[in-house]
Specification:
The complex is a heterodimer. Chain A is an alpha+beta fold. Chain A is built from 22 helices and eight strands. An eight-stranded antiparallel sheet of chain A has the order 4-3-2-1-5-6-7-8, with helices on one face. In chain A, helix 5 packs antiparallel against helix 7 (204-217) and helix 6 packs antiparallel against helix 13 (346-377). By secondary structure, chain B is mostly helical. Classes of the chains: A alpha+beta, B mainly alpha.
Amino acid sequence: MKETFFRSMTWLHTWAGLAVCWLLLLIFFAGSLSYFRHEISLWSKPELHQAVFQDYDQRQVEQQITKGQAYLADKAPDAASWTISFPSERKPYLSFGWADAPKAGERRGKFHEHVVNQDGQQMITDIRDSRGGNFFYRLHFDLHYLPVVAARWIVGLATMAMLIALISGVVIHKRLFKDFFSFRPAKGSRSWLDAHNVSAVMALPYHLIITYTGLITLMFMFMPWGALQQYDGDVRAFRADLNPARIQEKPGDTQAPLFDAARLVSQVERQWGIAPLKQVSITGPGRDNSRISFTLNSEQTVTDRRNLLVFDGVTGELKSLGNPESVTYKTYDTLMSLHTARFADWALRGLFFLCGLLGCAMVATGTLLWAVKIAQKQQKAIKTGARPSIGLRLVDGLNISFICGLPLATAGFFYANRLLPVDMVDRAQREVDLFFITLAVIAIVALWDGLRCTQSWRRWRQWLALSALAFAALPLLGAVTSGQSLLSNMADNQWTLVGFDMISLLSALALGFAARQVSRTKLISSRQGATSRLNSKSATPSTANTLTPRAAVNKKESRDLSLEEARQ
Amino acid sequence: MILALCLGVIAFSLMALSMFGHYKDCFGRAPTRAEQRWLTGFAWLLLLGSYGQCIHYYHLGYGSIVFFGVMTITALSTILLLSYQAKRLPLVLTLTSVFTLVFGGSSLIA
């Protein structure tokens, strides 16, 4: 325990944040990209970029269901389930899909999707195997290579640490309102502190909500006892009540003719009025226990639940209205929706994405600030020829690996999506592998630099510049490999793809700006790296003692700040 | 949302100007006590107006969420402007105010 409450909170903030910061950066980064996971998935399938996009048309729904049911009965009569997905804002195409029966040890069978062309006549069946945006979505809570349950425990614990760091951060930020608009660039550690404060305070409601609701999404894993007590330990019954849409019954053994789903549309309209539908799902088609579910496209309603109408697949009788209506459930649903933001239109999703990036900036600047302060403390010893401490070299290495590595690895993932052979075995996994290989290469280089004590801001500049180049060239890669350029996508009103290219170009600009600023920023001094011994040795006493007027001002300011911090 | 964004930019700019340091960066002199009070009060009113715009167009739940996003982006742009081009804040403030008046006025007439 520290001597004052303020110091205890500062200690808590530093170590709660530092313990999980790189993992949090990965979670925030992947989570932010997840806001556009359908859009990324669409970009990842260039087979769908020509003459596929269409708007939802209420008048054609019955016809589309009839056609889909006939197509699926022909293609996959023995499937575990069929899905007819209607065009929506985020997935602007009509598709017919089916899931195979799960193999032993699997929860769900493999899902196949065929997409209907704009003319409604041709089907696109050869779509490349890619995880697309779903990779980032799963990565932010499943961590890809780890067992799912272990990964969620790790993510959950990191989220708890984040919540602690946020609350203690608010407590220790005494000048929250006075320094509300303060960002003083090119002033060493003061700039990093300002950047950390600005990125945290500007999106503070978002950070608090996303962290808290992140815990809510995992609450039944952390604290299942209340529900288990209520349901006598029957988890399946509890989940069925909580989310009827996710419960899948095994197809029965007895054959029975399937009801014509298009004939149910009038009943659906009686319940919901003329509202857009998201999809029609048929479980156990051709079996005596089959079900036909209509899912409403809830558009901008702040909800995460799937509004369902479930019918008997043999008789067409209405079986259930889907969801519970209790106040507790509504509260839970609202909190979940605030985390997933599935209700948000493109503009609001863009704002969520921006706040997510501010979260990345908050974590990154926090850990950079720590490294810079430790480097400052060791500066004297380093100047006399001592090696920077292992801790400092490790933190610097992890910083460059994650802060520069994540954008470059993401670009690598997109390049792999377009450049790997389409018929490659396990292609989707190879794309993912390339993401982690890129990250590993940067980490190995950082480790090598750390071992030789040659870590420098030059390396940061190289990786950032390479990332900027990679993102700048993505629209070109897209045009060459899909036949649809940025301009032709604009002409064809394919705004999802236009948005992807624009974000790539903006990312290139931001990364290029960061690369330029790294060379200008006086993190320790204008010539030195964070832990570079070679650079510090080369600084002569005469240059160290002779201060330019600007450096003198900086020195005075840093003295004032130290005084201010000591007073606090 | 455009009007809500404009109102947010004006509100945060005024709020920044009500602070001693930022006012001095822009105008080269310290603000008077009355100016500070006037700027702060007007900024809060405009922020309220921005919230009103959000819930008017998007309803209470969705509009409230949009408003937090609007606050983030407008406050961030104000900070970046103050950090790199502080002298241009009055010009940006004037242009945004004129645009808001024209855009808001034409929306009312329509």
